[in-house]
Design a protein that fits this description.
The chain is mainly alpha-helical and 344 residues long. The protein is built from 13 helices and no strands.
């Protein structure tokens, strides 16, 4: 029986409903760690505010309520975008986070693109050359990425690779403010929408190093899963039949074998895409990329040495939503690639 678009819509709806308990669990964890584990939450959250100020008075009034009321108010504030303020009470958290998310999304998508166009072909090459020098070379390559700490890879790329390759390692553009409106807050996309080719090239050059570092460190997942899946698929009869028909090796590998091998790889990449968000904290801080990763570093005290609890909670919530959405997309792609999987 075929699968209709309505089946896909029902499938996505069910997956979204199943994600609600996950998000609630995340809010409970953040609530517990920030409202219960801290001895004096108001003093910790707003160290620059004097006792009796409007912010601290409101905070103290909230913490004198029953715990269930505190959690309910916490959820209401999250839904309405009232995510608190900075440690000095001068800046609302939600507008800053909302403006920073697109830049991080652009960085993660660029890294994921590199993982796909480089990591998957490397996995195919490793499977085709199993046990030979090409296989060993690919294994050394992705194991090196896995073994490299994120901060080390980012620092080496910024200090050595950037000057050597002539690539910038600071910010989104060569100039601080672009001469066009930033509709999406994604540097490359906004430059393209403005029809400004020089600034588009400049934005791409700034994106290459941070995206390459993020991709290199996580590429081993795509490469290894593709290699393992291809090794399972290559001995199958339909692949042998394709070779017997005289099809080119490239066509056999990438048209027939890779489609089935990608079923498992796609699922793993979906999980990895959510995990890439955590790597942006270090990468964005090193490359001064204006995304939520750099904001997270500043929120935990990396900038001024004073933690911003409201900001840290917001980052955790956004990262959790990113992981959830990435897994949802992976589930849908899994069903698209494998017709045997029922959308139910």
């Amino acid at each position: 029986m075929g699968r209709s678009p309505s089946d896909l819509a029902i499938f996505i709806g069910k997956r979204l409903l199943q994600l609600i308990p996950v998000l609630l669990g995340i809010t409970i964890l953040t609530f517990v760690f920030t409202h219960i584990s801290v001895v004096n939450p108001c003093a910790a959250w707003y160290p620059h505010q004097p006792i009796g100020s409007p912010i601290t008075a409101h905070c103290e009034a909230m913490f004198h309520q029953p715990l269930q009321n505190q959690y309910y108010q916490y959820l209401v504030n999250l839904v309405h975008g009232n995510w608190g303020t900075s440690a000095n009470g001068a800046q609302q958290v939600y507008p800053v986070v909302a403006a920073d998310v697109p830049a991080t999304l652009e960085l993660v998508l660029a890294a994921l693109f590199l993982m796909i166009v480089i990591g998957i072909p490397l996995g195919v090459i490793a499977a085709q050359s199993s046990g030979r020098w090409a296989d060993h070379f690919v294994r050394i390559f992705y194991l090196t990425g896995w073994a490299t700490p994120t901060y080390l890879g980012a620092v080496v790329a910024a200090i050595y690779l950037g000057p050597y390759l002539g690539l910038p390692s600071h910010g989104e553009y060569s100039q601080l403010v672009p001469p066009f409106h930033q509709w999406t807050h994604m540097s490359v996309v906004d430059a393209l929408l403005a029809g400004n080719l020089p600034w588009t090239v400049d934005a791409i050059r700034h994106l290459i190093l941070p995206a390459a570092v993020l991709a290199f460190i996580n590429m081993g997942i795509a490469t290894r899963m593709t290699r393992s899946s291809m090794l399972e698929v290559l001995p199958l009869d339909y692949v042998k039949s394709a070779r017997m028909k005289g099809l080119s090796e490239f066509w056999v590998l990438y048209k027939h074998a890779l489609r089935n091998a990608l079923i498992t790889t796609t699922t793993v990449l979906g999980v990895t895409a959510g995990g890439l968000l955590s790597g942006t904290v270090v990468v964005e801080s090193v490359f001064d990329w204006p995304g939520i990763g750099q904001y997270a570093y500043q929120a935990i005290g990396g900038g001024e040495g004073i933690p911003n609890f409201d900001g840290a909670i917001a980052v955790v919530a956004v990262f959790a939503i990113g992981v959830v959405v990435a897994n949802l997309i992976a589930d849908v792609l899994y069903g698209v690639l494998d017709p045997r999987v029922a959308w139910r």
